[in-house]
Amino acid sequence: MHALVAELFPICRSITGPGVRETLALLGHHLPLALHEVPSGTQVFDWQVPNEWRIRDAYIRDATGRRVVDFRESNLHVVNYSVPVRSRRSLAELKQHLHTLPDHPDWVPYRTSYYHAQWGFCLSHHRLLELQRQYGDDYEFDVCVDASLEPGALTYGEAYLPGATAEEVLVSCHICHPSLANDNLSGIAVATFLARHVGRLARRYSYRFLFVPATVGAIAWLSLNEEKLPNIRHGLVLTLLGDPGGFTYKRSVRGDAEIDRAAAHVLAHSGHDHTIAEFEPYGYDERQYNSPGIGLNVGCLMRSPHGRYPEYHTSADDLELVRPARLAESLAQCVTIVELLEHNRAYLNRCPKGEPQLGRRGLYRALGGDLDRTGTERAMLWVLNQSDGRHALLDIAERAKLPFAVVHRAARILVEHGLLTELEDDDRDRGASQPPRLNPSR
Ligand code: ZN
Fold first, then answer.
1. How far apart are CA 42 and CA 351, in angstroms?
2. 279 C-alpha to ligand 1 centroid (Å)
3. C-alpha 107: how far from its chain's center?
4. Exposed, middle or buried, 154 (CB in 10 Å: 0-12/13-18/19+)?
5. Ligand 1 centre and the CA of 356: distance in Å?
6. In which region does residue 288 sit, left (phi positive, over 0), alpha (psi from -120 to 50) or beta (all else)?
7. pTM score
8. Cα of 62 to ligand 1 centre, how many Å?
9. Separation of 237 CA from ligand 1 center, angstroms?
């Protein structure tokens, strides 16, 4: 995953343009990715697909031809989506187009201007002070943004992995940031490797992986695919998954959807520091998926949330900040969440009057004493007690405070011994996706 992040890092991405296509073409080596082009001007809900941005070069140059700010050095040096400009400006005039970070004077900020026609440059605060010292405010520089903003298309990628049922799990990440490693490349890498993993599973759900430019890309997909929405049962936005921070799961707007419970459960048993955050209509594309007219149950898995780590949206969000081990931990959480969703079924105890005699079947310890250390015996007792058709395995795992995998293993053993029957989806729907009912009457 880190190698993929490193491969994608130099590409100058934006919400449209060749950088996105190049990125998706590289991802296509790893997963079966369909590329879609939505023409500029297409109305997508309340938005219009913008013109396509193509940048060739950008610089601020002194009279000797020396580039004092150079897009070729780092694509963060130009405000993303800058309109073209060729002019001469004094440093004093230029300053209103220059962005720096005085608090982190060695870092270059990342700035965008998608929906206001502007141009600008980003540089380290140290570099700006140097220019002032070396040239003075009256010195006139050549300024060039060699870019075009013309009708083209918005590009997104989609990988659909059909499962045994048409019900879907949606995984989405944004692909519009240029040379920033944690904010967007880590999410892209984890989503790509999750898709590869899911592709090898015998799956109950179908999976749809979306690689979209933030906001307008997600809105475009939703607007063009409304007929697919009723099949989407669970969703996850993946982003910021390579930094050293603990995990953050941001709930769906509903707050108690199966994906919310699955993610919280997996993180609680992961052994990693983590925070469960309530939904807020700010952040990544979970905003679009959880909007009232869409109403999907989509949460967001991150490590340090946006804006809460100093390197966020700066040149310090680089290949050093993102560590291979952190990416691997993040992928492991995603894989465990998928396994939970796949196996969260409801069962019926076929021997519900009293406990079945587990010892006779070799399922219970031969000698009296403490319950087993793996929790399997305890889990079997919980599964037998709660498998009245109203409780799915996640309900049971939550109540028993046992990891889902242990409860699932117990259920499989009980099925093998004829003590448990898996319920069909129709029977299951009442119990699995809803909180356990109290005082069920039979
Ligand atoms: Zn961002």
1. 60
2. 18
3. 25
4. buried
5. 55
6. alpha
7. 0.94
8. 32
9. 13
**pLDDT on residue 258:** 98
CA 107–ligand 1 middle distance (angstroms)? 16
Tell how far the Cα of 273 is from the centroid of ligand 1, in angstroms.
Answer: 23
Q: For residue 433, what pLDDT is reported?
A: 45
**Three-class secondary structure of residue 99 per DSSP:** strand
Q: Contact, 419 vs 342, CB < 8 A? A: no
User: What does the pLDDT read at residue 437?
Assistant: 37
CA 184 to centroid of ligand 1, rounded, Å: 7
307 CA → ligand 1 middle, Å: 9
**3-class state of residue 250 by DSSP:** strand
Q: What is the whole-number distance in angstroms between the Cα of residue 301 and the centre of ligand 1?
A: 14
Residues of the chain under the 50 pLDDT cut: 428-442
- What is the model's pLDDT at position 368? 60
User: Using one digit for the tens of pLDDT, what is the confidence trace for 353-391?
Assistant: 999 999 899 888 755 656 676 789 999 999 999 999 999
Q: Where are the alpha helices (DSSP H) in 82-144?
A: 91-94, 125-135
Per residue in 80-137, pLDDT tens? 999 999 999 999 999 999 999 999 999 999 999 999 999 999 999 999 999 999 999 9
Q: How far is CA 419 from CA 198, 322, 352, 355, 382, in A?
A: 30, 48, 9, 10, 13
Structure tokens, 433: 């996706």
Rounded to the nearest whole angstrom, what is the distance from the C-alpha of residue 398 to the centroid of ligand 1? 34
Dihedral pair phi/psi, residue 318, rounded to 5°: -125, -170
